[in-house]
Amino acid sequence: MKSALEHIGQPWFRVAEDVSREDLQGWIYSAGNAASDLYGPSLDNWRDEAGAVIMKNGKKEFQDIYKNHQNKTLSWSYWRLINEQNDPELQRVHEKYYNSWNWFSKRSVNAMIKLRKWDWSGKFLNPNHRVDVGCEGMKEVKECQ
């Protein structure tokens, strides 16, 4: 994603890389994943399935921004985030895994969200909350200010 960010200059790619490399691989994630491996579907399975949905359903937008990046404002990042987090297929993936995780796995995912946004609610299943979390990393985007 780093090369896409350098080529295209859209903050969405930076935030996506941060989430992939930091939030979904850190110590809190690892602890939750270990617990979920023992008692239910792993966080790794959720991360992989959600990532595949994001890439599949965003393919057209990714192709368009790659070809036409010089004609796009930073608003593209905001609308990509909105479309992604309000995607019914992605929401179903989140609900499927979240509702089958044990108590500790749910708390680990909520903790990742809380630490990212400094919000103690951990509203993982709320698409608007996930947009707010994404916008925290894109302060240069007008719609996120």
Q: How is this structure best summarized?
A:
The chain has helices spanning 2-8, 11-23, 27-39, 43-57, 59-68, 75-85, 88-100, 103-117, 127-136. It has 145 residues and is mainly alpha-helical. The longest helix is centred in the middle third of the chain and has 15 residues, at 43-57.
Key phrases:
145 residues, mainly alpha, 9 helices, 74% helix
Please report the distance between the alpha carbons of the first and last residues.
24 Å
User: Helical stretch count?
Assistant: 9
Low-pLDDT stretches: none
Note the main sheet: none
The shape is elongated
Structural class: mainly alpha
Summed up, the domain count is: 1
This entry's quaternary arrangement is single chain
Residue fraction in strands? under 5%
Helix share of residues?
over 70%
Rg, Cα atoms, Å: 15 Å
Mean pLDDT: 82
Count the E strands.
0
H/E order of the elements? HHHHHHHHH
Report on the structure:
With 145 residues, the protein is mainly alpha-helical. It has one domain (2-144). The chain has nine helices and no strands. It has helices at 2-8, 11-23, 27-39, 43-57, 59-68, 75-85, 88-100, 103-117, 127-136. Helix 4 (43-57) runs antiparallel to helix 7 and helix 6 runs antiparallel to helix 9 (127-136). The longest helix has 15 residues, at 43-57. It is elongated, with a radius of gyration of 15 Å.
